[in-house]
Amino acid sequence: MTTTSVPPLDPPLRVLLGPGPSDVPSRVLQAMAAPTIGHLDPEYLRIMDDTRSLLRQVFRTDNEITVAMPGTGSSGMETCVANLIEPGHEMVVCVNGVFGTRMADVAGRCGATVHRVEAPWGEVIEPEAIEKGLAEHPGTRVVGIVHAETSTGAHQPLVEISRLVHEAGALLLVDAVTSLGGVELKVDDWTIDACYSGTQKCLSCPPGLAPVTFSPAAFDAVRARKSKVQSWYLDLSMIAQYWGESRVYHHTAPVNMSYALYEALRIVAEEGQEAREARHLLNHRALRAGLEAMSLRYIPSRSLPNLNAVHVPEGIDDAAVRRRLLTEYGIEIGAGLGPFKGRAWRIGLMGHSSTQRNVTMVLAALETILGDLGASLDRGAALAAAGDVYAGGGR
Ligand SMILES: *Cc1c(COP(=O)(O)O)cnc(C)c1O
């Protein structure tokens, strides 16, 4: 077998309306093809500094410790937990879906004594539940919670929870992988101590980096550690030296991925955060009107605008619908996870994917496929309902 028997790389052009990655603007893809330079080249250091200011803007923070970690969103999760937790520390983790479950797993691996505060999948965590958890575990150092639970589409309010966490003397750690750049998130105003995200959801950059920010209080806790951070690669005290004045070599930065993030963040800044959030909201309202006109029911009580999770109708084959969307229309949507396996669709409208064109296309395609499969629906009603929203009426 010779290497030439392997076909040339030729990925199809898709419309990415799943839980991530989202569609990547060509400006961002082109940025990745720029010449690779050294990770200590003065021009690369300038790119890092400007990336950091853009990240502060999008996180809405003045935090000195604001970096892009190598790896996907999960690397951001591990960075935050590994740096804040020492073996034996108590951590409250809020669990109402896949990503809270994952955070509890990571915390346990870092040696934390984990106390779970749970809510049913699709629900948000109520402040009273956190209050109770903190009263039962007064030694809690860190409370971890997911802002946008991508597995269920639940949109978690944070302001009241932040107050309770700080009253108890703990630090607040927030997963903003799906919310950053799409949903309102205010790290400083909401007193979030540690926050991480990923590039491939609402920032519309390929997967590969994890923006992370630590408040002064959170970084003080890192500096006050008695033991070394269990992960050499994710140790923020060393990473901070590479991003800071001294520029001490730690790892070879993923240079071309950084170009992509730089360009993606410039696009976010050009659009403006409020305009971007408003765009996500409008397209969500139109999609929702269309889905509900097809009698599809939303799962979460408080839905995210950028991740729309609905029940698969009774008698409809989940996988067959997703296969037809992909093969006939080139549209990817997400399947259900955990208790929703085979029973939910997750339609992402993230970043560059959140457009009137995509909303119209996915509604039309779904209506055609569901109609073919014998679902009782009023053909044309979905697009009419979405059209009303765009026309300014809404329902
Ligand atoms: C996608 C996601 C992650 C994990 O990110 P990866 O890039 O897949 O590693 C973590 N948390 C939430 C809420 C996510 O949506």
At a glance:
The protein has 395 residues and is α/β, with parallel strands linked by helices. Helices cover 41% and strands 15% of the residues. The chain is globular and about 65 Å long.
Structural write-up:
The chain is α/β, with parallel strands linked by helices. The protein folds into two domains: 34-270, Type I PLP-dependent aspartate aminotransferase-like (Major domain) (Aspartate Aminotransferase, domain 2), CATH 3.40.640; 272-391, Aspartate Aminotransferase, domain 1, CATH 3.90.1150.10. 41% of the residues lie in helices and 15% in strands. The chain has helices at residues 26-32, 42-59, 73-84, 98-109, 127-136, 159-167, 216-223, 236-243, 255-271, 273-293, 318-329, 356-372, 381-390; strands at residues 15-17, 65-70, 90-95, 113-118, 140-146, 148-149, 154-155, 171-175, 194-196, 209-214, 307-311, 331-335, 344-348. The chain has a seven-stranded mixed sheet with strand order 2-10-9-8-5-3-4, with helices on both faces. A four-stranded mixed sheet has the order 1-12-13-11, covered by helices on one side. Strand 3 (90-95), helix 4 (98-109) and strand 4 (113-118) form a beta-alpha-beta unit. Helix 10 packs parallel to helix 12 (356-372). Bound molecules: pyridoxal-5'-phosphate. Pyridoxal-5'-phosphate is lined by residues 20, 72-74, 77, 99, 146, 148, 150, 175, 177-178, 198, 207.
